Fold these 2 entries.
Entry 1:
Amino acid sequence: MKFNHQSKPVLAAFVVALMVLPFIIDSLLGHGWVRIADFALLYIMLALGLNIVVGYAGLLDLGYIAFFAVGAYTYALLGSPQFGLHWPIWAVLPLGALLACFFGVLLGAPTLRLRGDYLAIVTLGFGEIIRIFMNNLNAPVNITNGPQGISSIDPLSLGGFSFGKTHELFGLNFTTVHLHYYLFLGFTLLVIFVSLRLQHSRTGRAWMAIREDEVAANAMGINTRNIKLLAFAMGATFGGISGGLFAGFQGFVSPESFSLMESVMILCMVVLGGMGNIAGVVLGGVLLVILPEAFRHGAGPLQQALFGKIVVDPESLRMLMFGLALILVMLWRPAGLWPSTQRRRELMPDETVAQQEQDTVYDAAK
Amino acid sequence: MSFNKISPLLVLVVAVISAGCGKTETQVAQPKDAGELVVKIGASAPLTGPQAHIGKDNENGTRMAIDDANAKGVTIGGKKVRFELLSEDDQTDPKAATIVAQKLVDAKVNGIIGHLNSGTTIPASRIYSDNGIPQISPSATAVAYTAQGFKTAFRVMANDAQQGKVLGEYATKNLGAKKIAVLDDRTAYGQGIADEFVKSAQASGAEIVSRQYTTDKAIDFAAVLTSIKGKQPDLVFFGGMDPQGAPMVKQLRALGMKTQFMMGDGGYTPKLIENAGAAAEGTYASLPGVPLDKMQGGRDFATRYEAQFKQPIQLYAPYCYDAVNVMIAAMQQAGSAEPAKYLPELGKVVHDGVTAKIAFDEKGDLKGGAITMYQVRQGKWQAVETMGGVAPVATH
Amino acid sequence: MDILLQQIVNGLVQGSVYALVALGYTMVYGILGLINFAHGEVVMVGAMVALTVLQILLAAALSPVLAVLCSLMVAVAACMALGYGIERIAYRPLRNAPRLAPLITAIGVSIVLQNLAMMIWGREYHAFPLPFSNGLHELGGAIITDVQIAIVLIALLMMAGLMLLIHRSRFGRAMRAVAENSSAAALMGVDINRVISATFMLGSALAAVAGFMVSANYGIVHYYMGFMLGLKAFTAAVLGGIGNLRGAMLGGVVLGLIESLGAGYIGDLSGGFFGSNYQDVFAFFVLIAVLVFRPSGLLGERVAERA
C-alpha cells in the first residue's frame, strides 16, 4: 500500500481514525483491549523490522527477538534502581537502538556465507545465546539480575510528562494505556515511513535483488556483504527501539519474555501477513496479537451460546484455535494474506505457463 | 482475484467478531440478582504450557474457597454476598500477565489471587497497584515482589530468603552436611531459592563443592550430576520444580550416588514420588506453613479437594484457599468489599488458615511463617519437623 | 578418569537420543527441503500413545515383553497415520508455495498437536511404566543402563537400516530421484505423492520409536516434551549436514558430547566464570563455528538453495 498514491482526504481520515481508535476500543471493549492494541503496535514494529531481513533481503532469521531483548535490557539497566541510573528516554532509546544495531552486525558477520536453513539455525542459536546470557549474568558480577529480571523500571516520560500516569487533556481522561498507544503509534508510523522509503530506495532494490538471486546481484555490482549487513542492522535497530518502549511500558523485564517462541511468532506475523509488503506485515502483526486474545474472550461465551455449557476448557481451546488459524490461513493464502504485488507477480508469472507446468507434473504423477 | 479489496474486509470481519466476543463477555459478567452483593475475585495462573498442572491446581484451590464462602452465606457490612471467580491464563508469560491483569481490572474485580510465578506476579502487580486492587499471591517467592513498595501486594507463601535460610540450616545442622552441591533450574524461583540456600548453608559452615545449572525444560541431567559426583558431596540441593526433580533424583541414583537429595517447596508434590518411583525415597522438601493434618480444617480440606477434583492436591491449592479466605476476612472486618476500604484491613487481619496462622508484615510478606520439612518415607511425604514461625511443632 | 568416561557415556546416550529424532528430520528434509517443525510433536504423540497402551496392557496383566512390543507397534502405527495426515493436510497443498509457507503451517501443526495432547492426556507429567527392571552395568567405572544401551544400538541400527533402504532398494531409488528432481522423477514414472507420503510415514515411525525410547529412559512423559527435543534434534541434523543420514547420527552424537562435556568441564576451563548454565551457549558456539567453516554442516555436500 502506498500512501502517496492515495488522495489526501483518505489519508487524513485514516489518521483521524487511528487517533480516536483507543477511545472507540475503550468504550466498546474496555481498557484491556487498549493495552492489547499497545502490544499490537509494539509487535508491528518488530514485524516490520524482521520484514526488512526476511521480507526484503530474504534472510531467514529465527532469533530476531534477541534485538528486542537488547533494547529492552538497555532501557531497563539505564532506567531502574538496578544500577541506580535514571537516564532520560531521549538518551536511552537511541542507545538501545544503536546497541541492537551493533548486535545485528555481530550476528550478520559470521553468517554471510550461510543460506536458508543453515542461516535459520544459526540465528536461532544467536537468539538463544543472548537470552541465556541475560538469564545468567547475575554472577559472578550482577549485571542483568538473572532470572529474577529487573523490576521497578522508570515509566516512559518526556520532559516531565510521564506516560505512566493518567492525564486529563481537553476534558478527556488519558490513562497510561491511552498515552502509550499514541507514543507507540508515533513510533510505528515512523517505522512504516522509514520502511516505505527504504523499499523504494537503491538499498531496498539491492536487498530484493539479493533475495531473488545473490550471485546475479553480486555480478551486477552490488556489494552483497555490506548490503546484507545493512539489512541485519536496520532490522535490529527497529527491534531495539521496540524493546526499549516495551521495557518502559511493562516496568519489568525478565529473560522469559524473549524466548524462541516469540521469534517464531514474529516470523509468523511477517509470513502470514505477506512478506515484503508493509501493509501485509502490519495486518499480520495486528491479527496475531488479537487472535489469541479474541479466542481468550470468545471461546467461553461462544460455547455457552452453542451448547449451553462449557464443553472444552476455553484456555485449552485458545491455543488450539490459534494453531488451526495459522494452518488454515496459509493453506488459503500461501503467499500471505496481503502479499506484495511484486512477489505475487513472481509467484504467478503467467497463468498459462504455471498451469502447463502443473499439468505436466500432475499428469505424470497420475 | 483482488487481494487489496479482500484483506481490509477481513480486518473488518475480525474486528466485528472480536467486538462481538467482548460484548457477550460483559453481558455474562453482569450481576444477575440485584438483592445480593456480587464480589468478584480475579485469579490468574498458567493454565497452558509446561506448568499448567500446577496452575490448574491453584485455580481449583481458589474455586473451592469461593464455593465454600457461597455455600456458607457470607455477609459483608450486613449485606449477603455472592462471590464470583474470574480465572485467567497468564501462560507464565510476563506480557500475557499484564494483559490478563488489565482485563481483570477492567472487569472490576474486588481482589486478585495470583499469580503463580514471580515472573508474572511482578509485572502484573504494577497494574493492580495503579488501580488500587489488593493482590495476594499464593506462591510467588521472589523477594522483589513485595520489595517494590506497592501497598496492594501480599503473599501467603514464605519468600525465597525465608525459606532458603531454613533449608540451608536444616541441611547443615540437622542433616550434618559438610560438602554440598547445589543445582538450580535458572528460573526466578529456582535461582532465588538456591542462592538463598547457598548463603545460609555457607553461614552455617558448609562448603559448596559444586554449583550446577539446568533449565526448567530439561529432562536429562546426567552431565551435571556426573560432574557433581566427582566432587563427592554429602547433600545435593535442587532449586526447581517437580517435573525436573523427579527425573533428576532418578538419574542421581542411577549414577550410583547415595547422597541426600533436597528440594524446596517445588518438590513437595505427589507427582515427584509417582514419577521418581523408588528413587524418591529419602528425598527432603520444605513447605511453608504447618502440615495440613496438624491444622484445623487442613485434613478436611485435603479430603474434600480429592473428592471434588479427583486428584490429590498438587502443590499450592491450600495456599490459594487461604489467600481467598484472608481476603474475605479483611472484607468482613472492613464491612466492605471496596478495594480502597478493605485494603487497610488486609494488613491487620489475622486468620487461621489451613496452612498456617496468617498475618502480614508491613511489606505484605507472611509474618513469621513456619516452615515444615518433609521426607519421602515408604513412598509417602511425611512431615519431619516444623521450624520457625509461631507454632513450632516437632513431629515424628 | 571414571568421571570423564561417564561424561562420554552420557554424551553418547544423549547424542543417540538426538540422532533418533534427527533421522526423521533429515529424511523429510532430504526429500522435500522442508523443516518439519512438527516432528518433535510427533515424537511426543508416539510417547503418549505408547504410554496409554502400555498402561492398559499392563493393567490387563499381559506379559511385559508382549505389552512393550504391542505398545511400541501401536505407537508406530498411530504416528505413521499422523505423519500421513500432517503431510496431506498441511504440506502437500503448499508444495509449490513460497518456501516459508509450509514452515508456518508446520508451526501451526506443532501448536495444534501440543494442545490436543494436553486436552487428551492432561497437563501433568506421567510416569512411564517400564515393566522390566532397568539393569545397571559398569564399564570401567562408568555406569550405563539397559535402556541406554538399547538407545545407542537402536539409533545405529535405524541409521544402517535407512541407509540400506535408501541406497539398495527400489523405493530408496525413488526417494533419491524425488529428492534430486521431483518433476524428472515424475516423468520417469515415479509416483511422487506416494513416495513423499511414505517418507513422512517412515519418518514418523522413527519418531514413535524415539518417543518410546526417550520415555523409557527418563521414565517421564509430558505433552510439552517434543518441543525441546525437536529443537535439539534439528540442531543436530543441521550440524551433521541436513538431508544426510550419517550426518544426523554424527551431528547427534557430536551435539550430545559437546553438551555433556561442556556441562561437565566448562566451569573448570573458564576458571568458574561460566558454568553448566552456559551449556547451550557452548553448543551453539560450536555449531556456528562449524557452519562458518563448513557452511553445509559436517557431512553435508549440497548447499540448499531454494529461495
Entry 2:
Amino acid sequence: MPRINSAAELEKLRKGILSKKDPNKPSIAICAGMGCLVRDKGRIIAAFEEEIDKKDLKTKVGLRATGCHGFCEKGPMIVIYPEEISYVEVTPKDVPEIVSRTVLGKKVIDRLLYTDPDTGKKATHQSEIPFYKNQMRHLMGNSTKIDPQSIDDYLAVSGYSALSKALLEMSPKEVLEEIKKANLRGRGGGGFPAGRKWETARNAPGKEKYVIVNAHEGELGAFMDRAILSGNPHSVLEGLIIGAYAVGSHQGFIYARHDAPRMKNNIDIAVAKAEEYGFLGENILGSGFDFLVEVHLDIGIFVSGESSALMRSIEGNPPEPRPKYIRTSVKGIWEKPSVLNNVETWANVPLIINKGSEWYTSTGTARSKGTKLVSLSGNIVNTGVAEVPFGTTVREIVYGIGGGIPKGKKLKAVHFGGPMGGSIPESLLDTPLDFDELAKLGAPIGAGSILVLDEDTSMVDVARYFLDFLSNESCGKCVPCREGIRQMLKILTNIREGKGKEGDIELLEEIAEVTGAASLCALGKTAADPLLSTLRYFRDEYETNNESVKSPAEKRE
Amino acid sequence: MIMGKQKKTSEIIVQIDGKKVKAAEGMTILEAAQKADIFIPTLCHHEKLEPHGLCRICTVEVEVRGWTSLVAACLYPVEKDLVVKTRSEKVDKIRKLILEFLLAHAPNSLQLQDLAQEYSADPDRFEKESSFCVLCGLCVRYCAEVKKKNAVGFVECGARREIRFVPEIAATECINCKECFELCPTSYLQAAFVLTESLAFSTDSSPTAIKK
Amino acid sequence: MAAGYTFEPRILGFLCNWCCYAGADLAGVSRFQYPPNIRVIRVMCSGRVDPAHIFRAFSTGLDAVFIGGCHLDDCHYVTHGNYDALSMVYICKKLLEHIGLNPERLILEWVSAGEGIRFASIMNEFVPKIEKLGPLGKDEGLDEQGLKFKLEAVTKLIPYIKLVQSERLKVPVRTEEAYNKFFNSEEFNRLFDELIADKLAESQIMRLLRERPHSISEISEILGLSPHDVSRHLHVSARNLKAGTKAVDNDKIDRIINKHKGKPNSLVQVLLEIQHENHWLPQDVLDRVSKKLDVPISRIRQIVTFHETFRLNPVGSDE
C-alpha cells in the first residue's frame, strides 16, 4: 500500500473503498468487546467462520469482529447488515439458523430479539432497544460498522478526513482555537479544558514536546475507554495526531494496560496500518508534519494512571507521582512539555474538527459540552457502555437507559468516579450529568463509571471497599495518603464489625481533611472523597454502627 | 563560567510570615526561609539531597494571584508576590496529624518527639504499628545520589512499602560505609541492615552455601 | 533406655555479682542442700545477659537456663539493669515458645545477697521440674535436626531482635506491674508476630533454600507455614526458589532488550515482555537486565515488587 501524500489521494482512496462496498451485500458484525468475549470465548466468531466456509459463502457474506456494541448485559450480540437486525444473547448453536434464516432467508428469528422486560415488546433494530434509544452515539455509533483491525473500514466512515482538514487546511493555532472554542474538557476525571492544556504546552519553552493517550483506565467500574480503544483505535489515533499538530509535538505515546492483550494487539495493528498508509511518520499527507507513536504498557497499578506517575513510568521509573507545582504540560516526561489526555478526549477531537465547534457546543450544558461515555454497573438491569449528552439527568440514565433496579429493589445511591469519587442519594437523581453540578454535590463524574447501589448496600462498606482498594494501589510515597488511608481503613473496618467507638466519625473527618489537603497527588487528595460523600448523605449509617444494614450475603449467615 | 555572559539570576521578593525575604529565582520556599532564618520543620529533607517532598511536614500555606493553597515548602518554587504562612490553624492541624501518624510507628524517635511537643501531637492517638520505619527515604536517596551505590531501595507499594538492602551490594559496600545510618530518624535502618546481614549475606560457613 | 541411666539436667546459671551470686554463696556456706545440676557464670548485672547467651546455651544442648538478679528497684547500678533482664527474658520466653520449646526452661528470679535459703529452695523446685521435662526438645517432641535448625534461625536474628526491642518494645514506666501488663498484652503479641515471628519465618526459609532448592509446598510443610505466607516472604525478599538456575537463556533476554534498543527507559517494557514470555523473573535475569540497561538493581527490585503483576517464582509448577 503506497503512502498517501495529499488530500486528493486520500479522497481517491476513500472513494475507491466506498465504491467496492456493495450496500446490499449481507454482513455480520459480531461484538468482540471484553464483556461478550469473556462470555463466549470467541466460539461464536469461530462458529460463523465455520458455517460460512461450509456453505461456501466466503465471498458473498461479510464477517467482522467489531469493538464493543455497548449493551454488555445482553451479550453476546450481533448485528446483521444491511437490514441492521440486532440479535442478543446469541449462542454458537444459533449460528447455522442465523445464517440460513436471517442472512440468506432475510427472516427474523424472534427468540433472538431483545424483549423489553416491562412491555414485552420485541425490538428488531438496535435503535428500538430502550438502552440505545435514549443515547446519543457520536463516538460509539460506528462501532458495529468497523473491524478494528481494518483501516479501510475506518476510512469508509470518513476516517482521517479531520486529519486531512487540520493538517492541510488549518494552521496549528487554528486547530487549537477550534478545540478551545468547543470547550472540550478532559474525560479522564479531571475535566480540565483540553484547549488550555494544549496551549500551555504549545507556549512552553523547548522544541521537544510529547502527547500521550492515557489508556490506563484504572477507575473501578470504568470500561468505556477500552471499548473505544479496542473497537475504534483509529479515532483515537487521529485525534492524537491532530493534537500533536496543534501542540507542536512529534512524538506520541499510548499508555495502555498490560493485561489486555486483545486491545494491545488492536492498537499495534492500528499504529502499523497508520504508518503504512502514511498517517504516521514523516511528511504526513504531504503537510510537512512528522509524528511517530510508541506504545507503552503499565505495570498494573492504579496510581500509574495519575499523570505524573504515568510519565515516570514512560521514563522507565517506578510509577510514583511528583507534586505538580510546575504543570506537566510545561515539565512532563524528561522535563519536557507533555500533554496527557484520556482516550475519550482524543476521540472527540476528529468530531470537533470535522463538524466544527459550533455544532459540538450545541450539545451539552453551559459548561460541559458534547457527549460522555458512561459505564453502567452494579445493581442495574442494563449494564454496559452508553453515550449520553451532558445534561441528561442521572434518573434518565439509570431508568431510561439502565432499565432501573433489578429484583424490584429500591435505589439507594449512585456512585460516580470510583475510588476518587462520591455517591449521591435517590433524592438527588434529577441532577444533570455535568462536571461542575456533580462535583458540587461531592460526587465528581470522574471517568464516567456509574455504579448503581440498591437498598441492601451498606454505604460504610462502600467507603471501606474503596479505601481498601486504594491502600494497595497507592504508591505509598507520602505520609498523609499512606498513613491516612491505613488509619481510615482501620476505623471503618471496626465500625463495620460493630466495634465502632465514640468519636470515630470526628476522627475520620479529621483524617480525611488532612489527607485531602496535604497529600502529594490526586490519589491521596481524593482518597477520602467516597467516605466524605457517604458521611454527607448517609451519616446515620455510621452512627447506628449499622448492624441493621447487612449485605445479602451477610444476611444469609 | 563565561566572563561577561553570566546571566544574573533574577531576585524575587516574597513574604514569609509577614517578613519580606529576598530570594533568587529557582529557590524553593524552604531555601528562602532558611536564608532568612525562618524555621520550617522537615523530616525527609537533607541539604545534600534533592528534595523529595514526601513527609509533608513542611507544608505551608501560600497565597499567590488570589489563590490560597497548601504546598510542600521544600519543593514549591518561589515566585513574585508569593505570600507564605509557615504557621496557621490548617498548617498546624496537618503537621499534628502527620506527627501522630508517624509516632504510631516510631514513638521513640527523638526527632519526632521534639516536633511532637511543639504541635501537641499525642503519641498514643493511634494504635501502635509494628514497622518503625517512617519511610522518609533519606537512606535510599543518600545511597543513590551521594554514594551512587544504590545498596538500599524501596520495595512494594502502598501500605506495604518498606526499605530493603540489596544483599549483593550491601555485603561489599556497606561494611566500610554506613554513612546513611546517622540520617535515619529511627533505628530501623540499622535493624534492616542487620536483618539483611543475617538473612541474606551468604557468608555462613555451611558447606552447601550457594555462591552468589 | 540403657540400664542404670537417669537423666541429669544440665542447667546454666547467670548470677549477678552483687545479689544472686552472693546469695548462692551463702547457700553453700550455710550448707543448704540443693541439686548440683547448675553451672554458674558470674555476671556483674543480670541486665548484662544477652539473648545470644541464652540461645547459645540451648544450642549447645543445655536443658535449662537460670538467670538470677537483684530484686527490682534494688539493682546496684543506677541504670536498673534488672528491668532490662526482665524484658529480655519475656522476649526470649516468647521466642522459645514460638520455636516449640517449653518456655519454662528459662527462668528469671530475684535473690538478694542474704537470701541463701531462697536460692536453695528455687533450685530444689527448678531442677526436678526440668528433670520431668527431660532433655531439651524431648518433652516438646522435637527432633535434634529440627531443633538445631530452629535455634540457628533465632540466633542469626538476634542482632535484629535487639534493635527491635530497644526501639519498639520499650515499656515507658519502670515498674513490675507495667512490665507485666505490657508483655502480656495484645499489643505486644501483635508487635512480636509482625516484627519478629514474621522475620523468623523468613530466616528459616532462607536457611532452607541455602541448603538446597525447595518447592513452596515443601517449605510450607517443613516449617508449618501456609503456602500463602511462604510465597509472600519469597516475593518480598525478591528471592527465587531456585537461586542460581537459569530458566531463560541469555539470547532471549538480549533479543528483548535489543528490541527496545537497549534504552534505559524501556526497563518496564522489557520486564513486562520477559514476564509475559517466561511467566516469572529469575534472579539472574534481573541481574542481566540491570547490567545491560545500566539501571541499579534496587530500582528493578522496586518495580518488580510494586505490583503482583511480576512473579519472582515459577507459577503452577509442582516441583
